[in-house]
């Protein structure tokens, strides 16, 4: 690293402060030479996207200092707020010095397709990009019903190469990494992937009426069609770690120009 100081990495997630994947990512960042600080939701916050909600008492949001197994000397905080809230707070005066990069994960389950919009893991790095920080969302493809041990070590084997890509990218770059839950020796080469149409699964929501009144019932359904080649889902299914650059909030000019013919017709 060319700087006279070590780059600072904020490690967060949406699975919560007690997730082994979070601890593994923090260890990987430490071993890569980063100055590491860990701040993650005090409870599971999966599916919150880029929400900046927190549990407030007036204008206060509680945080709790923690010591994490295997990470002596690394400051860690359980925060009563969502991942993007944590990242946003780091850029609005909480952390000094501010982080240079945001690393989010390791999520237990892949984050694929345009459904990454709903991911708190991804939402954290998109929030960081608004502050001009590079960010990496890291996910391991462990099915929810899988009882096998997640192979965090496979992610850590891929991580150094991906961090090199991240640090060479422009400020504000947001990347999403998905890794197969296989032994490191069995995975394919790292591939750049475009987003699939949605993801590996979809949620079906039905309205049901019972003794407690009406309620919405959710059920996860796997996609029926085969994954499209070259997408994050297709490449991950074939055993490749996938890397995708995501674009955060930006404007797209020309909306009135595109509407001009129909407006003139009236």
Strand and helix map with partners:
Elements lengths: L7 E5 L7 H12 L3 E7 L14 E2 L2 E2 L1 E4 L9 E4 L3 H8 L10 E8 L11 H11 L3 E8 L10 H17 L5 E7 L10 E2 L8 E10 L2 E10 L9 H6 L4 E5 L8 H11 L1
Parallel strand pairs: 1-2, 1-7, 2-6, 7-8, 8-9, 10-13
Antiparallel strand pairs: 3-4, 5-6, 9-13, 11-12
Organism: Pseudonocardia xinjiangensis
Pfam family, one: SurE
EC number: 3.1.3.5
What is the N-to-C succession of helices and strands?
EHEEEEEHEHEHEEEEHEH
Query: What is the CA–CA distance across the termini?
Result: 61 Å
Estimated helix fraction: 10-25%
Strand content: 25-35%
Task: Let me know the largest β-sheet.
Answer: 9 strands, mixed
Care to count the β-strands?
13
The tally of structural domains comes to 1
- Order of strands side by side in the largest beta sheet? 5-6-2-1-7-8-9-13-10
> What is the name of the CATH superfamily?
Survival protein SurE-like phosphatase/nucleotidase
Task: Extract low-pLDDT stretches.
Answer: none
């Amino acid at each position: 690293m060319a700087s006279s100081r070590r780059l600072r990495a904020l490690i967060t997630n949406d699975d919560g402060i007690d997730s082994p994947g979070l601890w593994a990512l923090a260890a990987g960042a430490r071993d890569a030479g980063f100055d590491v600080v860990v701040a993650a939701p005090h409870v599971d916050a999966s599916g919150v996207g880029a929400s900046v909600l927190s549990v407030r008492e007036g204008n206060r949001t509680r945080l709790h200092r923690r010591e994490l197994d295997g990470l002596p000397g690394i400051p860690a905080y359980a925060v009563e707020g969502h991942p993007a809230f944590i990242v946003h707070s780091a850029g609005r005066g909480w952390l000094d010095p501010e982080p240079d990069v945001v690393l989010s994960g390791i999520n237990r389950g892949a984050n694929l397709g345009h459904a990454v919009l709903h991911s708190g893991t991804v939402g954290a790095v998109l929030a960081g990009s608004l502050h001009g920080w590079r960010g990496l969302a890291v996910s391991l493809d462990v099915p929810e019903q899988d009882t096998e041990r997640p192979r965090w070590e496979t992610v850590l084997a891929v991580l150094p190469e991906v961090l090199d890509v991240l640090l060479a990218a422009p400020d504000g770059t947001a990347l999403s990494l998905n890794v197969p839950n296989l032994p490191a020796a069995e995975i394919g080469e790292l591939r750049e992937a475009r987003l699939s149409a949605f993801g590996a699964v979809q949620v079906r929501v039905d309205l049901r009426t019972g003794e407690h009144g009406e309620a919405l019932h959710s059920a996860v359904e796997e996609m029926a069609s085969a994954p499209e080649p070259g997408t994050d889902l297709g490449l991950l299914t074939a055993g490749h770690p996938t890397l995708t650059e995501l674009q955060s909030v930006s404007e797209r000019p020309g909306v009135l120009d595109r509407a001009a013919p129909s407006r003139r017709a009236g």
